[in-house]
Each structure stands twice: as structure tokens, then as C-alpha cells.
Amino acid sequence: MTDVHFMKQALREAHLAFEEGEVPVGAVVVMDGKLIARGHNMVEKLNDPTAHAEMIALTSAFSQIGAKYLPGATLYVTVEPCLMCAGALYWSKISRIVWGASDEKNGHKKITGDYSSSPLGGGREGAFPFHQKAEVSAGVLKEECAQLMKDFFASKR
Predict the structure, then answer these.
(1) What is the Rg, in whole angstroms, of the alpha carbon atoms belonging to the chain?
(2) Which of 157, 110, 151 is nearest to 24 (CA)?
(3) What phi and psi, each to the nearest 5 degrees, are found at residue 93?
(4) Which residues belong to the active site?
(5) pTM, 2 dp
(6) Mean per-residue pLDDT, 65-73
(7) d(CA 3, CA 5)
(8) Band of residue 157 on the pLDDT scale cut at 50, 70, 90
(9) In the structure, what pLDDT confidence band is assigned to residue 55 with cuts at 50, 70 and 90?
């Protein structure tokens, strides 16, 4: 299975969020080539500002495997994680994070800066917010992920 395949699964979750009136972000966790957890934003539904797609997917993955760490797992998320989610990903010790669209307003890079040329996954202009062994890939299906966000916010105006 490819990054595109699993990002499409995350996009399905994002569409569910959109249909529920939530900011359309979706996430899936994959381990050993198998999707083990899904999540989408549930902030409004749960009246909980921490109920981001990544947090829902991580909690489900921990429960699924019965452990508090996810070495060897990959998180696919449609939008760049915020600083809170980056912290959760750090503590999960997840091996890989893949996102679609960047988020200039709320993504972690607003605080951490651009680390794209760092030996730890990018440069060292900014701090790398994920576990030091984590690999980061961005831009997978970025147009589709970004368009869903644009459509959602356009519908709110």
C-alpha cells in the first residue's frame, strides 16, 4: 500500500468530519501495512477542543494494540498537525508522520518554524517537534486536502 492509498483513507475521515459540521481533518494510523485506527475532528460533537483527528486516531491506536507507544507506525493526516497534536505524536514515539496540506494559521510550524533542511527531518531553522527518530513527509494529496478545507470554510461564510 502506498502513501496515496492511506491518505485517501484519511480523506474519507475528513469528509465525515465535514458532513458532521466539523473542521474537515481526518487521520489514520497504519502499522505493518494495516490500518489500525481512524479519527476525524470531533471538537464540536464532544465539546472538547482537544478532540482533533490525530488525537482520536492515536487514542484508538493505543487501545487497539494495548500499548502507549507506536514505534513502527505511521500517522496519515490531511492537514499539518497543530502544536498540541505534534506533542502527542512526540510522546507516542510514532515512527512516521505524513500530512497532506500545510496549515499556515494553526499548524505546528507557526510556532516551531521551518525545520525542512534539518538532519532530523528537515533543517534546524526551527525546532523539530516530533520524536527524534520520526520521519516526516508532507504534501501527499495536498490539493485535495486543501480544497476540502477551503470548501468547508467557504460554506461557513
Answers:
(1) 14
(2) 151
(3) 60, 30
(4) 54
(5) 0.89
(6) 96
(7) 5
(8) confident
(9) very high
**Structural contact between residues 156 and 150, judged by C-beta atoms closer than 8 angstroms:** no
Q: What is the mean pLDDT of residues 29-44?
A: 97
Cα separation, 60 vs 150, in Å, equals 28
Q: If you search the block for the grid coordinates 490531511, which residue do you land on? A: 78
Read off the C-alpha cell for 11.
480523506
Residue appearing with cell numbers 494529496: 141
Q: What type of residue is 111?
A: I
The CA angle 49-26-155, to the nearest 5 degrees, is 75
C-alpha cell belonging to residue 26: 481526518
3-state secondary structure 44-99: HHHCCCCCCHHHHHHHHHHHHHCCCCCCCEEEEEEECCCHHHHHHHHHHCCCEEEE
C-alpha cell, 45: 460533537
Closest CA to 93 of 130, 40, 129, 50: 130
